[in-house]
Design goal:
Blueprint: E1 3-7, H1 16-29, E2 33-38, H2 44-48, H3 61-66, E3 81-82, E4 91-93, H4 114-119, E5 127-132, H5 139-148, E6 151-157, H6 160-178, E7 186-193, H7 201-214, H8 228-236, H9 246-261
Parallel strand pairs: 1-5, 1-6, 2-4, 2-5, 6-7
Antiparallel strand pairs: 3-4
Helix pairs in contact: 1-9
Length: 266
C-alpha cells in the first residue's frame, strides 16, 4: 500500500520538522525510496535535507501547486531534487519563500487537490512520502498536504503550545475528513515530542491531559526524547541515523517505531 505521511501541528516549535527529518532518516535506513515534500515556506525541512537557497531547484513545491494539471497525474516527479550531502537517495520537493503566495491564490481552481494528483503514480508500495506542514490553522497549504496524505502524525511538546497545537490540528483534520476531501485520512496519533528527562510537573500534567482527552490517540509509547544530538545533526544537515552514541540510537529507534505505527513496511 502506498504511504504518504503528513507531520502536522498548528503550533510552531513542537518538533514538527525534526520529526519529519527523523522519519526520512529512518525510512532511508530501511532502504526505502523516500520522497520528502516541504509545504512550509520557511523551508526548514528543505534546508536540513541539504538543499540551500543557492542550489534550490528551478521547479519547487510552489511551482507544483501553481501548475494546473488539467487531470494529468504524476507531475510531482518534475519537481524532484536530490537531497544534499549525507541524504543521498532522498528526493525532495523543496519549499521556497514564494510558496506563501499560494495561500492567497484565488485564481487556481482546485489547488488543494494538486499535490495528491501530482503524487499519484509517483508514490507506490516500494517507497514512502513524508510531508512537513506549516504550523498554521488550515489554509491551502495545510489542506493540500492533508488531502494528499494517507496518514497524519501530530507531534506535541508536553507544554501549552503542544496541547493547543494538537487540539487545533485535530479540528482541521476533522474538517478535511468531514468535507469529503480525504475521508480515509488516518491519524497515527499524537506523539509526545522533545520530551525532557526526569520529573516535571507540567510535563506530567500535560501528558495526563492528552491521555485523558484523546485516549488511544495519545501515543506515549512513541515519545521522542529531548537529546542535544538532534540539534547537532540538524545543524550539520546529516541524518540522525548516521550519528554515533546512545542518544542518537534512541532517537533513531523511536523514529523507526513511528514508521511502523504508520504502517510503513520495511
Amino acid at each position: 500500500m502506498s504511504k504518504v505521511l503528513a507531520v502536522y501541528s498548528e503550533k510552531g516549535g513542537v518538533g514538527k520538522s525534526a520529526l519529519s527529518a527523523g522519519l526520512v532518516a529512518a525510512a532511508r535506513r530501511r532502504k526505502l525510496d523516500v520522497i520528502a515534500g516541504d509545504l512550509d515556506p520557511r523551508g526548514t525541512f528543505t534546508s536540513e535535507l541539504g538543499i540551500s537557497d543557492e542550489d534550490a531547484p528551478a521547479f519547487s513545491m510552489n511551482d507544483l501547486l501553481a501548475l494546473d494539471p488539467q487531470g494529468e497525474t504524476g507531475l510531482a516527479a518534475e519537481a524532484f531534487a536530490e537531497a544534499g550531502g549525507a541524504w543521498s537517495g532522498v528526493r525532495v520537493i523543496a519549499a521556497e519563500r514564494a510558496l506563501a503566495n499560494r495561500e492567497t491564490d484565488n485564481v487556481a481552481v482546485g489547488l488543494e487537490f494538486r499535490l495528491r494528483l501530482g503524487l499519484k503514480g509517483v508514490v507506490g508500495p516500494e517507497n514512502v512520502g513524508i510531508l512537513d506542514l506549516p504550523p498554521r490553522a488550515g489554509g491551502k497549504l495545510v489542506t493540500s498536504a492533508l488531502v494528499a496524505a494517507t496518514d497524519v502524525i501530530i507531534p506535541a511538546t508536553l507544554d501549552e503550545d503542544g496541547r493547543i497545537g494538537a487540539k487545533e490540528a485535530l479540528a482541521t483534520i476533522k474538517l478535511v475528513k468531514d468535507l469529503g476531501m480525504n475521508p480515509d485520512l488516518r491519524i497515527v496519533g499524537i506523539v509526545p515530542s522533545i520530551v525532557p528527562g526526569g520529573r516535571n510537573t507540567l510535563k506530567d500534567a500535560i501528558g495526563k491531559y492528552l491521555a485523558d482527552t484523546y485516549g488511544p490517540l495519545y501515543r506515549d509509547d512513541l515519545a521522542i526524547p529531548r537529546h542535544s544530538v538532534r540539534q547537532q545533526t540538524r545543524f550539520a544537515c546529516v541524518p540522525i541515523t548516521d550519528a554515533p552514541g546512545r542518544e542518537a540510537a534512541a532517537l533513531s529507534e523511536v523514529y523507526d517505531q513511528i514508521l511502523t505505527a504508520a504502517g510503513v513496511e520495511a
